[in-house]
Design goal:
The complex is a heterodimer of chains A (467) and B (96). Chain A has 467 residues and is α/β, with parallel strands linked by helices. Chain A has 14 helices and 11 strands. An 8-stranded mixed sheet of chain A has the order 4-6-5-10-11-9-7-8, with helices on both faces. In chain A, strands 1-3-2 form a 3-stranded mixed sheet, sandwiched between helices. Chain B is mostly helical and 96 residues long. Helix content of chain B is 33%, strand content 4%. Chain B contains 3 helices and 2 strands; from the N terminus they run H-H-H-E-E. Chain B has a two-stranded antiparallel sheet with strand order 1-2. In chain B, strand 1 and strand 2 form a beta hairpin. Chain B is flat, with a radius of gyration of 23 Å. Chains A and B meet through helix 9, helix 10, helix 11 and helix 12 of A and helix 1 and helix 2 of B.
Chain lengths: 467, 96
């Protein structure tokens, strides 16, 4: 197998045994970028020179650190010292941060090599990548389809083997959905598990900092690096970070898996539904118990999300005035303007109670639904998206239709829960994923559950053929 | 949402919109507000609002000075600076 196709675990093994160097590994990734990125448009910035320098340095020093010499992509919403950071928006077209986000700092300290900054829907607003001010990203499984969003470039870069992992942010599904569309493992950690410091804020009570990997083990490995309290983000609690790899192989025998009936919408694609049913059968054959549960406020979650999220967006985007950095507000493109307007409206005098306060109350009900479900079951399994990847252009002119793509993922953000998306099969040549949801800070259990299924199916070993 | 509300909201949000944009956003925002209006049907009289999910309150750290950015770094991305300060357009009219 080519070096750029390896999992992190495989690459670590190869580096340790000196079968290849980090420089060779990094060069293999850069070659793939050069070969394919004109078609895919996964990167906004490629840091060839810096990456190669870092790789040579890693080869010289050698270390057992978890990501030593591993080239990764960083979503362009993470501040990277000395590397342009746009959040996919022309407002920040020339912005060069003077500090690293905490997650970037921790990844670098663990030995990761920053290959470049990945494309995304501007300000992380979108479910397709098409809202990027730097052009849409294509799905490596079929270039006429979207890779999902908003972490579109991270999903596409990893699926097309331009890096060994990539970071993302998930405010309403922006990691889980592209992971599902690209046959990848995508982790949305518990809210507060990974520091938001230095990551350009979208909706501050919902933003979760996670990543894309090929395998569940790789996902656990990265969370072990990025998770943990940070004095620069007061929402990161002082809860110890587990050794996420320790119990990963323990299996799912006796595990109680809840199937929330409300997630099997009438709009759920028939083939996606069949795929999920097969997944559940597989879990049963692995010894898990399937239990039907109800989350009665699921159908209100999207409405709650599209009040709370734009409200927080309007507040966070108010700071962009082009004075201290970046360009003036006339550079905002349509989706950002729409959300700023919507949020400003629902927070304005006379409408606050009817919209924002109401949404915060229903958010409580959604949270309580989950609490009750987790009294009965250990984890929940649901589809990630009602359909596989859709075609470029299919939803871009109809904002509400695009918003509906998030219907099955926003609940975890509203309740602050962790969610692990893993590959679950294919429908007409396009990948389909499932998400495993658990109580807050149950990432260890999610990895264990995901690993059992992954090892029994090995969907992750399938890679797209890109012409 | 009528045209006047759209204009008012744009003013509050410090966005300049063309007439075409006002028309477009009026239609799209009305559609979205109609959709989220479904929450009116949910009974929430006795329910407390959730504004955050961590349960953490009054998070303090020790008041100790640590490393901070140099003024050169702070000004590094500014379009215009003057004597170590951000230079901006006048925001008050000059009194004569």
């Amino acid at each position: 197998m080519e070096l750029n196709q390896l999992t992190i675990q495989e690459a670590r093994e190869g580096l340790k045994k000196e079968k290849f160097s980090s420089e060779e590994l990094t060069k293999a990734c850069l070659r793939q970028v050069k070969k394919l990125d004109k078609k895919i448009n996964a990167f906004i910035t490629v840091c060839e020179k810096e990456a190669l320098e870092q790789a040579r340095e890693a080869d010289k020093i050698k270390s057992d650190k978890p990501l030593w010499g591993i080239p990764i992509g960083i979503k362009d919403i993470y501040s990277t010292r000395g590397i342009k950071t746009t959040a996919g928006a022309r407002v920040l077209d020339d912005y060069i941060p003077v500090y690293d986000a905490t997650a970037v700092k921790r990844l670098k300290e663990a030995g990761a090599i920053v290959l470049g900054k990945t494309n995304m829907d501007a300000w992380a607003h979108g479910a397709s990548g098409e809202n990027s001010d730097y052009g849409p990203t294509k799905n490596p499984w079929n270039l006429e389809y979207v890779p999902g969003g908003s972490s579109s470039g991270s999903g596409a870069a990893l699926a097309s083997a331009m890096c060994l992992a990539a970071t993302g942010t998930d405010t309403g599904g922006s990691i889980r959905q592209p992971a599902s569309f690209c046959n990848l493992v995508g982790l949305k950690p518990t809210y507060g598990r990974v520091s938001r410091y230095g990551i350009i804020a979208m909706a501050s009570s919902l933003d979760s900092i996670g990543h894309f990997t090929r395998s569940v083990t790789d996902s656990a490995l990265i969370l072990g690096v990025t998770a943990g309290q940070d004095s620069f983000d007061a929402t990161t609690p002082d809860i110890p970070v587990s050794d996420y790899l320790k119990n990963i192989k323990k299996g799912v025998k006796g595990l109680k898996i809840g199937i929330p009936k409300e997630y099997f919408l009438s709009s759920l694609d028939k083939d996606v539904k069949k795929t999920i049913e097969k997944v559940l059968e597989k879990f049963e054959s692995l010894g898990a118990k399937l239990i039907s549960v109800s989350l009665p406020h699921t159908s209100d979650a999207l409405a709650v999300y599209y009040i709370i999220q734009p409200a927080e967006v309007s507040s966070n985007l108010a700071r962009y005035d082009g004075i201290r950095y970046g360009f003036p507000r006339d550079r905002f493109s349509d989706e950002a303007k729409r959300r700023i307007m919507l949020g400003t409206f629902t927070l304005s005098t006379g409408y606050y109670e009817a919209y924002y306060l109401k949404a915060m109350r229903v958010r409580t009900l959604i949270k309580e639904d989950f609490n009750q479900a987790f009294n009965q079951v250990d984890v929940l399994i649901t589809p990630v998206s009602p359909t596989p990847a859709f075609k470029l252009g299919e939803k871009i002119d109809d904002p509400l239709k695009m918003y509906l793509s998030d219907v099955l993922t926003v609940t975890a953000n509203l309740a602050g829960l962790p969610g692990l998306a893993i590959p679950a099969g294919f429908v007409k040549g396009l990948p389909v994923g499932i998400q495993i949801l658990g109580p807050q800070f149950s990432e260890e259990l999610l990895f264990r559950t995901g690993y059992a299924y992954e090892q029994a199916t090995k969907w992750y070993q399938r890679r797209p053929k890109i012409e | 949402m009528n045209k006047k509300t759209v204009q008012h909201i744009a003013l509050l949000a410090n966005l300049k919109l063309s007439n075409k944009e006002i028309e477009k956003f009026q239609k799209q925002l009305t559609e979205i507000l109609d959709y989220v209006g479904q929450l009116n049907k949910v009974k929430t009289k006795e329910i407390k609002p959730t504004s955050q999910v961590t349960g953490l309150e009054n998070v303090f750290r020790k008041d100790e000075p640590g490393p901070s950015l140099s003024s050169q770094d702070v000004l590094a991305n500014a379009k215009k600076t003057d004597k170590g300060m951000f230079k901006i357009k006048a925001i008050f009219e000059q009194w004569s």
